[in-house]
Amino acid sequence: MGTMTEATINGLFMGSLYGLIAVGLSLVFGVMKVVNFAHGSLLTICMYAVYYLVMKANWNSYLTPILVVPLLFIFGYVVQSKIINPVLKREFELGGGHAVILLTVGMMLVMENLCLLFFGAYYKVAQVPISSLTLNIGNIVISVPRMIAGIVSVILIFLLYAFLNKTDMGKAIRATGQDREAVRLMGINDFKIYNISFGICFIMLTLAAALMIPMYYVHPSAGKIFELRSFVIVVLGGLGSLNGAFLGGIIIGLIESVTAQFLSATTAEFLIFLVFILVLLLKPNGLLGKK
Are 245 and 234 a contacting pair, CB within 8 Å? Predict the structure, then answer.
């Protein structure tokens, strides 16, 4: 019983972290209708930025967003403005729909190889005291970094949800995702909204990286597994739905953690993608998605 409870708790914590990573992917799709295949590579860049602040400048991992978030928001804003928007404009003019997807695949390859060139292929781990801390409640052992990651992820997702629903900028972002032509008539620059949305995606990934560094190795393909998780989560919850991304993250986290207690890790992976396929077949819009 204790083992099952422990697995459920850890699954909830990890599911919340998965949800935090996935909301950036869901936001970009919801606003721009673009499937971003570079999402995992962007997470890798954020992880390297946090890692080097922790190891070279002796920063606390959880404080690194103070510096990294503004810098990477600007970086994301510029990438969207100078690289992605020109292709988007051409697609809007010509009525195409594949060039941006191919662009994000190219960005993924470029960023992965740049990380390999500058940082090497070796796995790097941040040696921080909190990495090995555990909380013992009876016969239940909870990883402190996982607990912090799970709780903070829930708070951050709630804050993003409040921002999108309660602020003028958030409402402009949602409106742009619903009808870009209509918001243009209201005097809103839709491409500027795209820039801000991509910057927010970087913020979410940077915050996730700060929570992950005490638990995970950093290497050029570190974001790959989380990118695959994010696609499954976003489809499971519903493309463009932040609530769905959070719910999908919780479901995947529980499947991964609980199943691994009774079956192999490979079987857990199989079940995750089986759920993914079943959702595509039975409810293509996702659990909370709209047509």
Answer: yes
Q: Which two tokens stand for residue 31?
A: 């606003």
Phi, psi of 120 (to 5 degrees): 80, 170
Give yes or no for a contact between 131 and 54, defined as CB atoms under 8 angstroms apart.
Answer: no
Residue 179 sits in a domain of what CATH number?
Answer: 1.10.3470
* pTM of full prediction above 0.90: yes
Per the structure, the count of domains in the chain is 1
What would the two tokens of residue 173 be? 């972002």
- Determine the structural domain holding residue 32 and report its residue range: 2-282
Looking at the DSSP assignment, which residues form a beta bridge with residue 135? 142
- For residue 217, what is the DSSP state? -
Residue 195, both tokens: 């820039």
> In this structure, what DSSP letter does residue 81 have?
I
The pLDDT of residue 229: 87
DSSP label at 129?
Answer: G
Note the pLDDT of residue 242: 84
pLDDT of residue 290: 64
- Looking at the predicted structure, is the pLDDT value of residue 291 above 70? no
Distances (CA, A) of 117 to 113, 163, 216: 6, 38, 21
| 143 three-class SS | strand
User: Which has the closest alpha carbon to 232: 279, 290, 177?
Assistant: 279
Residue 287 lies in a domain: no
Residue 143 pairs in a beta bridge with 134
